[in-house]
Amino acid sequence: MDKLLIVWSTAEIEVAKKMVLLYSSVILPRGYWDKAHLMIWGPSAKLLAENAELQEMVAQIKATGVALSCCVVCSDEYGVSEKLATLGIDMTHTGELLTSALKEEWKVITF
C-alpha cells in the first residue's frame, strides 16, 4: 500500500494554497496514493485557524478521505485547538505519528 504523510508547518499562505492543500486535495481522488494523512504542525495551525479560505480547502481535502491531525501542543500555544477541532481535525501529539510513519512504510514530505 502506498502511504503518504504530508507535514505542513509553514505559515506561508501561497505555499499552503498552491502546493500543500492543492496537492492534498487531489492525491486520493486521482489514485496517486492509497492512503494519505495531512499533519498540521506549528505556524500552519495558526494560519489555518485564522483563514476561512484555507478552512474550506481543508474541508474539501477531508471529504476526499485524507486523514487530518494537528499538533495539540502547538494549537494550544496558539489558542486555536477548539477552532481546528470544529473543522474535524484530530488534536494529537504529532511527534508520535511522525516517528511511526518514518519507521514504517510511509513516504513523508514536509513544507
TrEMBL record:
Organism's domain of life? Bacteria
Q: Which Pfam families match?
A: DsrE
Q: What is this protein called?
A: DsrE family protein
Native organism is Sulfurovum xiamenensis
Q: What is the lineage of its organism?
A: Bacteria, Pseudomonadati, Campylobacterota, Epsilonproteobacteria, Campylobacterales
